[in-house]
């Protein structure tokens, strides 16, 4: 083992407050951009970019483009992971944030199908792919900034701060849509489940353009970071790899597979509760495939109330995972997700109170399963391939879970003649796969991130980690 670096070189150089803010603000912006698209994909894109068919076909087309970004995310994870493991976390995070912000800004100025035909649709797909590519590199870097700078015994807590960007981004993005919708009300007698003409004409562009302001703030915060001591030590000791991807696949394939399935239930729950639920909640009860029939404003306010629980329990999950272990915490939460999928329809059947309870329980479980991932996935890999390995696991899971979840959910919703009971069964089935992966995995809370060698390899996975708990 190389001699340890000198004391001054290893001393922490990022104040804790700067670490937490930098890891939080970047993912907040990234998830804001993603949520703004997700909301528009339900609310306006079917009519603006996919006209000519029935409403369900247009919605499915919009969701297909939404899911296309998930395919680009693993590519982004490989590209930014290579940069992050070779050049450092800070510069890579700046590039990913710029890419995401530019793509979102350009969506705000795109022509619609009525103005440019299928060229407009093609440009929307291109910008959506750029969003996915950027987000593929953002999450890992933010998680590493938090966890590699965390004090002993608080790594899962620190790892919840980049995760907290998901509920905050949702609240900011959908809150802005609500404000714009309130300022551009529909005409008297208009369908309250549909946006106004002014909103369809130009109001929907404002949230995309506003992203530029948020990106500028995020870049200023991240420009003040310095490289983590963990990466600096790895670089100075000559452990930087020429091809992190090859090393991750060759030496840590088991962790890549397990990490992917660790995230599966999280992704499916995430996108069912945010994207599918918005479509289901605001579809009229008299539609060919009936929904709950709430107005857009009413249902989004209900969702935002639920997302507050998402935020709170994301933070709650950190101390629990630090105390009891990531694996034990997630086994219990994933088991609860299995049950939640099976009681999905009975809850909704209780009326408005049941719908609110459905949203609160779903988003509470979302926080409890999403929070520990900020520490768990980085802990699976040594420093030399940590950005690449954690990013690939996180983003390949997005294809298996998030890319197809809204699309499958709409198809199952149709198959159930307007009842989403099959959607709940789908969620439970995916949670069972995650539960199996967790049972096969190892506990990682005592794995050191500092020496780059304590993370398990496939030749000695059991010996290099702490013993399996639970």
Automatic annotation (TrEMBL):
Major site of localization recorded for this protein: membrane
User: Which organism is this protein's natural source?
Assistant: Streptomyces albidocamelliae
| Superkingdom classification of source | Bacteria
Q: Where in the cell is it found?
A: Cell membrane
Query: Annotated region Disordered: where?
Result: 449-470
Q: Which residues form the Major facilitator superfamily (MFS) profile domain?
A: 19-445
Give the residue spans that cross the bilayer: 58-80, 92-110, 116-135, 156-184, 204-221, 256-274, 294-316, 328-349, 355-380, 392-415, 421-440
Per UniProt, the keywords (alphabetical) are: Cell membrane, Membrane, Transmembrane, Transmembrane helix, Transport
Q: Does the keyword Zinc apply?
A: no
Q: How does it sit in the membrane?
A: Multi-pass membrane protein
- Keyword Membrane in record: yes
Protein's recorded name:
MHS family MFS transporter
């Amino acid at each position: 083992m190389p001699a340890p670096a000198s004391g001054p070189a290893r001393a922490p150089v990022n104040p804790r407050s700067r670490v937490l803010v930098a890891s939080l603000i970047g993912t907040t912006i990234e998830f804001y951009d993603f949520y703004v698209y997700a909301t528009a994909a339900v609310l306006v894109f079917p009519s603006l970019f996919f006209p000519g068919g029935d409403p369900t076909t247009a919605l499915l087309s919009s969701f297909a483009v939404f899911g296309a970004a998930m395919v680009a995310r693993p590519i982004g994870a490989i590209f930014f992971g290579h940069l992050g493991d070779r050049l450092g976390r800070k510069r890579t995070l700046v590039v990913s944030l710029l890419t995401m912000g530019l793509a979102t800004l350009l969506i705000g100025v795109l022509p619609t199908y009525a103005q440019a035909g299928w060229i407009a649709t093609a440009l929307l797909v291109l910008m959506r792919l750029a969003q996915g590519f950027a987000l593929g590199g953002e999450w890992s870097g933010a998680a590493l900034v938090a966890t590699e700078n965390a004090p002993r015994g608080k790594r899962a807590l620190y790892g919840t701060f980049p995760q907290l960007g998901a509920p905050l981004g949702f609240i900011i993005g959908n809150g802005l849509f609500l404000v714009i919708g309130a300022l551009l009300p529909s005409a008297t007698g208009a369908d309250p489940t549909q946006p106004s003409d002014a909103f369809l004409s130009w109001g929907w562009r404002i949230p995309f353009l506003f992203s530029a302001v948020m990106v500028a703030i995020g870049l200023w915060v991240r420009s003040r970071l310095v490289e983590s001591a963990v990466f600096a030590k790895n670089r100075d000791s000559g452990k930087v790899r020429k091809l992190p991807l090859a090393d991750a696949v060759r030496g840590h394939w088991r962790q890549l597979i397990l990490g992917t399935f660790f995230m599966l239930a999280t992704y499916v729950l995430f996108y069912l509760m945010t994207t599918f639920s918005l479509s289901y909640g605001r579809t009229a009860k008299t539609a060919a495939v009936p929904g709950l029939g709430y107005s857009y404003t009413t249902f989004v306010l209900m969702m935002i109330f639920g997302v507050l629980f998402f935020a709170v329990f994301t933070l709650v999950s950190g101390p629990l995972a630090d105390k009891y272990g990531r694996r034990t915490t997630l086994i219990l939460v994933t088991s609860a997700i299995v049950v939640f999928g099976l009681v999905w329809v009975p809850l909704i059947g209780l009326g408005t109170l049941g719908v609110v309870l459905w949203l609160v329980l779903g988003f509470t479980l979302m926080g409890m399963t999403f929070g520990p991932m900020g520490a768990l996935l980085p802990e699976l890999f040594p420093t030399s391939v940590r950005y690449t390995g954690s990013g690939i696991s996180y983003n390949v899971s997005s294809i298996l879970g998030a890319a197809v979840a809204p699309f499958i959910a709409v198809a199952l919703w149709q198959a159930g003649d307007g009842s989403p009971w099959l959607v709940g069964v789908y969620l439970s089935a995916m949670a069972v796969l995650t539960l199996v992966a967790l049972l096969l995995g190892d506990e990682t809370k005592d794995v050191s991130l500092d020496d780059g060698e304590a993370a398990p390899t496939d030749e000695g996975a059991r010996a290099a980690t702490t013993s399996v708990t639970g």
